[in-house]
Specification:
about 425 residues
C-alpha cells in the first residue's frame, strides 16, 4: 500500500510552534548527550519539524511527513529556492532525538535508486505525546507564516507527455534586481495582511469530507494539486516564465485550489464573501491599448451564440492564439485540448479565421506569442488592487482573473 505523505516545507513557521520548540529543546539536548548545545539552531530546526508534523497530521492522521535526510539536500549547492538556514547536521540530529524521545515515529526510511533515478524521502508521523503538545500549545493553521523566495522564475515549459500531463519549466536561479526586490517587498506586504486575516470555509463536516474527496481525486490526476484543503496556506508567490516580463501570476492560496462551487462558502474575518470575475481580461487590456472603450467590444468570446460550451471553447481558442506563432499550431493545440469547433464553422481553421475577422482591431496580437507578456500586465494590475485594498484596511483574494472579497468591500473592489 502506498504511503500517504506530505513534503516537508522548510519555509513555514509560527509563534506557537516556536514556543513548543523552546519547550522541547532541553529534552533534545539531554537525548543527544551534548554538553555544548547551540540552542538557537536546534530551536530553528525543531520549530519547522514540529509545525510540518502538525500540518501533516491535521490534514490526515494517516499521512506521513516526507523529509530528506540526504546531506546533499542541505549542504549541497545552495540557491534562491532553498532554506539556507537549514543544516544537515542539526536536522538529522533533531529528527533522531525526537524519535528517541517518543515524539516522532519513523515509518519508512528514504531511498534512492541510482540506476532508475527513483527516490523517496524518509517518512515520519507524530506520536501521541507530540500530538498532545499540539493542543497544549495551540498550534494552528491560521497563524502559520511563510518565508522564502516569493518570486519564482521558470524555464521554458516542456511538452506534455503521457507520463507528464502537466509539465512545468525548471526553476531558474537569478540575481535580485531593483525590480524583483520591489515585487518581493510588495508581496511581503500582501502576505503579512493575508496572515492577519481569518480566511475560512463555512461548510458542514459532511461538506468538508465531500470537498476533500473531490480534491483528492484531482490530486490523483495532477499531483501538483492540493490533496485536501490546507487552511495554513494563506500566502502567495508569483511565477514568471523565462523572464520577469512574462507571466507573474499569483499562486499558493488554498482558496485557489478548492472547486469553484465552494468559493461562495469562503469567509474573510467571519464575513460572507462575493467573487468578482474580471472576465476577458487579456482582450480588454489589448482593446484599451488600441484606444477602444469597454462598451466597444463587450464580451469578446460571445461571437456565435449564447451557448456556454461554445463560449468556453472560443475563450480557450483565443488564449491559444495569443500564445502561439501561427494559425496551424493554434489549431493543433485546440484540437489536442479536446474542444469541438463551433457549429457555425466546418472546422477550427475556419473558426480561427472568423475570430480574427471579428477581433480585427487586436488581430495583430494573435500568433505573436505575446500571451505571457499580456499576463504580466494583468498580474501587475492584480498586485496594485491588492495593495490598494490593504491600504483600505482589508484584503482581496486573487484567483487568476477574479477576486474574492468581503460582501461589504464589493463597492471598494
Amino acid at each position: 500500500m502506498t504511503l500517504l505523505s506530505q513534503p516537508f516545507d522548510p519555509f513555514v513557521s509560527s509563534e506557537e510552534s516556536h514556543e513548543l520548540a523552546l519547550r522541547l529543546a532541553p529534552e533534545v539536548k539531554v537525548a543527544l548527550g551534548l554538553k555544548r548545545f547551540a540552542t538557537s539552531q536546534y530551536v530553528y530546526h525543531l520549530e519547522r519539524i514540529v509545525l510540518n508534523s502538525f500540518l501533516t497530521h491535521s490534514s490526515n492522521p494517516d499521512k506521513c511527513m516526507g523529509i530528506s535526510r540526504g546531506k546533499n539536500y542541505y549542504d549541497g549547492k545552495q540557491d534562491l529556492y532553498r532554506n539556507q538556514s537549514l543544516s544537515y547536521t542539526y536536522m538529522v540530529k533533531t529528527l533522531d532525538a525526537l524519535e528517541k524521545l517518543g515524539y516522532l515515529k519513523l515509518i519508512q526510511e528514504g531511498w534512492i535508486d541510482l540506476f532508475s533515478g527513483g527516490s523517496e524521502t524518509t517518512r515520519y508521523r507524530p506520536e501521541k505525546a507530540l500530538i498532545a503538545l499540539f493542543d497544549q500549545y495551540d498550534v494552528n493553521h491560521q497563524s502559520v507564516a511563510k518565508q522564502g523566495m516569493p518570486l519564482r522564475l521558470r524555464g521554458k515549459k516542456p511538452r506534455k507527455t503521457k507520463t507528464n500531463k502537466n509539465p512545468k519549466g525548471k526553476l531558474i536561479s537569478y540575481r535580485p534586481t531593483k525590480q524583483t526586490k520591489l515585487m518581493a517587498k510588495n508581496l511581503t506586504v500582501i502576505n503579512n495582511a493575508l496572515r492577519e486575516a481569518d480566511i475560512n470555509l463555512y461548510v458542514s463536516n459532511d461538506e468538508m469530507n465531500n470537498l476533500n474527496a473531490e480534491m483528492r481525486n484531482k490530486h490523483e490526476e495532477d499531483p501538483s494539486k492540493l490533496p485536501e484543503v490546507q487552511f495554513s496556506r494563506k500566502w502567495l508567490y508569483r511565477v514568471f516564465n523565462e523572464s520577469f516580463e512574462k507571466g507573474g501570476r499569483f499562486y499558493g492560496g488554498f482558496w485557489q485550489e478548492i472547486p469553484s462551487a465552494y468559493r461562495s462558502r469562503l469567509t474573510i474575518d467571519h464575513c460572507i464573501t462575493y467573487e468578482i470575475d474580471f472576465s476577458s481580461l487579456h482582450a480588454a487590456i489589448l482593446y484599451i491599448r488600441e484606444g477602444y472603450k469597454r462598451e466597444n467590444f463587450l464580451d469578446p468570446y460571445q461571437i456565435w451564440s449564447e451557448d456556454g460550451d461554445t463560449r468556453k471553447a472560443t475563450k480557450v481558442a483565443m488564449n491559444i492564439m495569443f500564445n502561439t506563432t501561427n494559425r496551424h499550431a493554434a489549431v493543433g493545440a485546440i484540437e489536442a485540448a479536446g474542444y469541438e469547433a463551433p457549429k457555425q464553422c466546418s472546422n477550427w481553421l475556419e473558426a480561427l479565421r472568423a475570430i480574427e475577422a471579428y477581433h480585427e482591431p487586436i488581430a495583430h496580437y494573435f500568433y505573436a506569442n505575446k500571451g505571457l507578456e499580456i499576463q504580466a500586465l494583468d498580474s501587475q494590475i492584480l498586485e496594485m488592487i491588492m495593495l490598494e485594498m490593504i491600504e483600505q484596511k482589508t484584503v482581496a483574494l486573487p484567483i487568476h482573473d477574479s477576486f474574492v472579497c468581503k460582501a461589504g468591500d464589493l463597492g471598494l473592489l
